[in-house]
Design brief:
With 122 residues, the chain is of the alpha+beta class. It has helices at 6-18, 25-31, 53-72, 86-97, 99-103; strands at residues 40-43, 46-52, 111-113, 116-120. The protein has one domain (6-120). 47% of the residues lie in helices and 16% in strands. The longest helix has 20 residues, at 53-72.
């Protein structure tokens, strides 16, 4: 299989081997697919997101920002919204809970593998 980003595929393969989820490289090559984009991998019905540091931070910030708009600030009266520091809130969420809490919808975990961060998403 040809992967859009070979280094991300290798990072995921090594992570899955370390976790005991695959036995050998051949199993990964035969079973792994990229169903949506260069960052998403699916193997044996499990979906993973593989990101570098800046991609992970950007995605976490984007997801927190969406959460604020959809779930938090829409309940705050318009005249009070200017008191809310979105940037500080986002920084605190990432600092306190970590990026995995926001990105990994499966277990909230972030796994480091070399220069990449791996998140299970289903």
């Amino acid at each position: 299989m040809n992967y859009t980003n070979r280094n991300k595929a290798i990072a995921l393969m090594n992570h899955l081997k370390d976790q005991g989820k695959i036995d050998q490289r051949k199993e990964f090559i035969e079973e792994c697919e990229q169903p949506y984009d260069e960052n998403t991998f699916e193997i044996n019905g499990n979906e993973y997101l593989v990101l570098d540091d800046s991609e992970a931070t950007d995605l976490a910030e984007e997801l927190i920002d969406s959460l604020l708009d959809e779930c938090v600030l829409n309940e705050v009266p318009e005249e009070l919204k200017h008191y809310f520091d979105r940037e500080r809130f986002t920084e605190d969420c990432i600092r306190i809970d970590g990026r995995g809490h926001t990105i990994s919808s499966y277990d909230g975990e972030e796994h480091e593998q070399g220069n990449y961060y791996i998140y299970r998403t289903n």
